[in-house]
Write a structure and sequence with these properties.
By secondary structure, the chain is α/β, with parallel strands linked by helices. 39% of the residues lie in helices and 14% in strands. The structure holds 4'-deoxy-4'-aminopyridoxal-5'-phosphate.
């Protein structure tokens, strides 16, 4: 039996979502057609838009469906290339690589975006043409970022604020309206929906600056050409409904108990961001003198699926830029694994995992000595 502990990479699709998608696969119309079949497809899309907008506190007409968060981030940042842009140094590559001229906002050793740095830099600039991109929750550490402060600073300096909220939805409350966010990215497969669909939510104010990357038949208010992925959008909407009712109190108990066991059973283990606000489902643990890659493979053989660093690109195991930005010692950077959950584990599952982890680490350390 395999225990999947990699929800931040992708959450298993919710069974009700599968049922809804199976039922809707029969929708044959193109949502742009005006006949009945077209209108049925259009209605299904608009219903999903409505649910998603409720989940993130935005206006339904301002949701632009994309092929996922990577495309939504690319669309958001496309207009930043002609602006003074600030991107946090712990962003996902799908943000970092969009604007290589952006100034990086450092993070503290606790993994939190340096708000003072942002504030003092924005103050020096003329109050227009500024773009800021920060994430709500880091995908590797699970650390929650101070969005209220960042949003206030952006508003005071008339800067456009983009937030990658991929790892926040269904884990913390996040409302575009309440937080005064201009652009917000989310992805369906991180919340139990199908892969290959996501969206960018846009505030009324920034429509004028947004610049499309895929032009075509004028779909999605002209900001994303191409026939909408009706079936996936329906699945995304269904998953977003679940994300509105999140309750992670059991997950938090599991996470805390898992970390307590690891710390007591395995010497030299360190919980990254232990004293920072974190989402309940994520634990990033570093082990001295261990290669995270070998550890992930060894745990997989034992039936536990975890990830090392940022596991978004296929099979790529690169040392984490997030941990480097936090100033972590290189040996720990290379030896960190991420455990991300979405349900509570029982006591015996936690104990079995920790026992195997300890055994595998001891084996790896012994092997290293022999070599
Ligand atoms: N942003 C963050 C914070 C992520 O964790 C990910 C996926 N790991 C993405 C963006 C990219 O999402 P998608 O797979 O939908 O393109």
């Amino acid at each position: 039996m395999t225990l999947y502990l990699d929800y931040n990479a992708s959450a298993p699709i919710i069974s009700d979502v599968v049922a809804i998608m199976n039922e809707s696969i029969g929708i044959i119309g193109n949502p742009s057609s005006i006949h009945s079949s077209g209108r049925a497809a259009r209605k299904a899309i608009e219903d999903s838009r409505e649910i998603i907008s409720k989940t993130i506190g935005s206006n339904p007409k301002n949701i632009i469906f994309t092929s996922g968060a990577t495309e939504a981030n690319a669309l958001a940042l496309n207009c930043s290339k002609t602006m003074q842009t600030f991107i946090s140094s712990i962003e996902h590559d799908s943000v970092l690589k969009q604007n290589i001229n952006a100034k990086l906002i450092p993070v503290t050793s606790e993994g939190i975006i340096n708000v003072e740095f942002l504030e003092s830099n924005l103050r020096k600039l003329p109050e227009d043409n500024i773009f800021v991109s920060v994430m709500a929750v880091n995908n590797e550490t699970g650390i929650i970022q101070p969005l209220e402060d960042i949003s206030r600073i952006c508003k005071e300096n008339n800067a456009i604020l983009h937030v990658d909220a991929v790892q926040a939805i269904g884990r913390i409350d996040i409302s575009m309206d309440k937080l005064n966010i201009d652009l917000l990215t989310i992805s369906s497969h991180k919340i139990g929906g199908p892969k290959g669909i996501g969206c960018l939510a846009v505030s009324d104010k920034v429509y004028t600056v947004l610049s499309p990357i895929i032009m075509g038949g004028g779909q999605e208010r002209g900001f994303r050409g191409g026939t909408e992925a009706v079936n996936q959008i329906i699945g995304f909407g269904a998953a977003a409904k679940y994300a509105q009712k999140f309750s992670l109190s059991n997950t938090l108990t599991t996470r805390d108990s898992l970390e307590k066991n690891v710390l007591s059973m395995i010497p030299d283990s360190i919980i990254i961001g232990k004293n920072s606000p974190r989402v309940a489902n994520t634990s990033l643990i570093a082990f001295k003198n261990i290669s995270a890659e070998s550890l992930v493979i060894a745990l997989d053989i034992e039936g536990y699926e975890v990830s090392s660093g940022s596991a978004c690109s296929s099979g790529k195991i690169a040392a984490s830029h997030v941990l480097r930005a936090m100033g972590l010692n290189e040996s720990l950077v290379k030896g960190a694994i991420r455990i991300s959950l979405c349900r509570s584990l029982n006591k015996s599952e936690i104990l079995s995992f920790c026992t195997i982890l300890k055994r595998v680490i001891n084996q790896l350390l012994r092997k290293k000595k022999i070599i």
